[in-house]
Write a structure and sequence with these properties.
There is one protein chain. The strands form 3 sheets. Strands 4-3-5 form a 3-stranded antiparallel sheet. The protein has a two-stranded antiparallel ribbon with strand order 1-2. It has a two-stranded antiparallel ribbon with strand order 6-7. It is elongated, with a radius of gyration of 33 Å. Helices cover 64% and strands 4% of the residues. With 621 residues, the protein is mainly alpha-helical.
Length: 621
């Protein structure tokens, strides 16, 4: 969805998050809820236990037909709502029709499930006395499914409210990675249920026990216990089933990481724009006093270079804050899952005398996929909770580890290299250069915000060169003249360099001197695109707008919203600019008829102009 308003909370628009993340969350949770609803259908909701021993055989009590019918209706409503959401995400159903169907369908499923569970629980209360009735795993799967249906209906209600209040357009726009994640989640749930059906048939397990086994197998927890393949066929089929399942889980975790990386990038962009607005206010407020101070401390520093350095500093600090914010949220999510789940398992396994300490020990091993197997959920309530918990906990702990590694590496890599260069692993530059580089990092760019100074050298009055070391002396005249050498040697040479730099990972960030050099090649004054005057007929000689002059560049700042430093890829931005210059130069070398046929309209494209004199094609030299 496209955001029309910018209300920033923690550096990002809360409605931007609603429009991007909530439909994806609803799709993922909806798939899990439908899978759990299937689990509630395949097993009776209560069973007879002749004694209090959990290892004794139990006798299932058949569900009444009305219970099966109503549960099937709830599953059908949830399935239709999930399908409509997918169609809406692909743009095949209108927004209001889809939202009405989704919210009503999932809300109805949740409400009916809740009423059904309450009625059934009151009529069949649980008892621990020998010869009593107990609820099965199917009953608890129904409770979890109703809770998930209610949660996603609330989530989609927020999406509908945001669109109704016009915080974003009434159209979903999800990328390829989001679609991939939804398909992978659907594939994982189908694969888990089909594997449970296969191994329950081969090993003689109950279907929901097989679901429990398939869950801790595919997520590489490996609890073991009594649920291990004991037949030769089961052990043989286990190998391809586990390998394929672990691959699906790995791909899904990678997709979750990519989606969160995209969301983090959007948060960073919003936060950077907010910081730019604040810096602009401070420049207007403190510009005069800061200019005088800067002229005394940095007489060679120009306003243009200063703004460039401020923008780079803002990019670095914003990226650092976003990394720490992502790490903080992932760590908090992991702690909540760890501690809250420990309390839940302690309550669910109280029949087995689990204490809170034992639950903490068990959940720690499960989160880290160690799985000693000395403690395993055995009650009918703990197994469904474990399946739900692991489907969220394992991806979250994996993402937390990734965020921790990314943040720690970014923060401490330079410090570790410094310690190594000073002790056991000296670098190639030598100790003196290493110390000097770190001294410059700690002392540079301490310039007051809002400074504005002259770009000339006070001694000789000439402007300080910003392209030193990049532009050869013999190329200066060619660049100024825009001659054949410029278009057939300089521009192609730089295009080859930029094409190689586009492939670099992480993306290359150009220095101030490099930007000034490339902007001089593009001949843009600063960096607003030079586009031709449009919708004007050719003159008598066939030229568009007479001498083919381009619009004047817009005067802007490195800290402006149109700054090239805010582009998604700086190398790609420069490549497009050089391409425009090359095409513009080649157009000057064709005949008037050819130059009137094509008119550059935008970067990276052109539009045909069928009007113009009919003359023979000729190349003007």
């Amino acid at each position: 969805m496209v955001i029309r308003r910018t209300w920033l909370t923690w550096g990002c628009s809360k409605w931007w998050l609603v429009s991007k993340i909530c439909p994806l969350i609803a799709g993922v949770f909806g798939i899990i809820a439908n899978g759990f609803c299937i689990c509630s259908l395949v097993q009776d909701w209560r069973e007879y236990r002749p004694t209090q021993d959990l290892q004794d055989e139990v006798q299932g009590i058949k569900n009444p037909p009305w219970l099966i019918a109503i549960t099937s209706i709830c599953f059908g409503c949830g399935l239709i709502s999930n399908l409509v959401l997918f169609l809406n995400l692909s743009g095949r159903i209108s927004f209001f029709l889809a939202q009405a169907t989704i919210i009503i369908g999932w809300s109805l499923s949740s409400l009916v499930f809740v009423v059904l569970i309450i009625v059934y629980a009151l009529n069949n209360p649980r008892t621990q006395r020998p010869g009593g009735y107990v609820f099965t795993q199917g009953f608890y799967y129904a409770i979890i499914a109703s809770g998930l249906y209610f949660f996603i209906s609330v989530v989609m209600t927020f999406v509908f409210v945001g669109a109704y209040k016009k915080y974003y357009t009434k159209k979903f726009r999800i990328g390829k990675m989001e679609r991939t994640l939804l398909l992978q989640q659907l594939g994982l749930m189908i694969y888990l249920l089909l594997g449970a059906l296969l191994f329950s048939t081969i090993e003689g397990w109950q279907f929901l026990d097989a679901v429990f086994w398939a869950d801790f197998t595919l997520l590489t927890i490996g609890l073991g216990g009594d649920l291990t393949p004991k037949t030769n066929l089961g052990r043989l089929l286990f190998i391809p089933y586990a390998v394929s399942g672990v691959t699906i889980v790995g791909l899904m975790v990678n997709s979750i990481g990519e989606v969160l990386k995209t969301a983090k990038k959007g948060i960073q962009e919003q936060a950077l724009k907010r910081q730019i607005e604040r810096i602009g206010v401070r420049i207007l407020r403190d510009g005069v006093s800061a200019s005088k101070k800067l002229q005394k401390t940095h007489p060679w520093r120009s306003q243009n270079e200063y703004e460039f350095n401020v923008m780079r500093k803002l990019q670095q600090t914003t990226a650092r804050k976003c990394r720490w914010m992502a790490l903080t949220f992932s760590v908090l999510a992991t702690l909540i899952l760890w501690l809250v789940s420990a309390v839940v398992f302690a309550v669910a396994e109280r029949e087995n005398e689990w204490t809170f300490l034992i639950s903490v020990y068990f959940t720690s091993g499960a989160l880290l996929t160690i799985g000693y197997g000395d403690f395993t959920p055995t009650t009918n309530s703990a197994k469904p909770i474990f399946v739900l918990w692991t489907l969220f906990a394992i991806p979250i702990i994996t993402i937390t580890i990734g965020n921790s590694a990314d943040t720690i590496i970014k923060e401490f890599q330079g410090f570790v290299l410094l310690i190594g260069s000073l002790t056991v692993f000296p670098g190639q530059d030598g100790l003196k250069k290493v110390v000097k580089s770190w001294y410059l990092k700690l002392t540079r760019d301490r310039i007051p915000v809002g400074a504005c100074v002259s770009t000339t050298n006070p001694d000789n009055g000439h402007q300080k060169s910003s392209t030193k070391g990049r532009m050869k002396k013999k190329e200066v005249d060619h660049i100024a003249e825009r001659d054949v050498y410029f278009y057939f040697h300089i521009i192609p040479k730089e295009l080859c360099k930029v094409l190689e730099e586009i492939k670099v990972f992480p993306q290359k960030q150009y220095g101030y001197d490099e930007w000034i050099y490339y902007l001089s090649l593009i001949s843009m004054g600063k960096w607003a695109w030079l586009t031709p005057e449009r919708n004007k007929p050719p003159d008598r000689e066939g030229n568009i707008d007479g001498s083919r002059e381009y619009a004047k560049p817009q005067e802007t700042s490195w800290l402006g919203q149109a700054s090239p430093l805010l582009s998604a890829n700086e190398a790609e931005w420069i490549l497009q600019g050089l391409t425009v210059v090359l095409r513009k130069g080649l157009e000057k070398m064709v005949s008037p008829y050819e130059s009137s046929k094509f008119q550059i309209s935008e970067i990276g494209g052109y539009s045909k102009n069928v009007t113009g004199p009919k003359e023979n094609n000729a190349i003007s030299h």
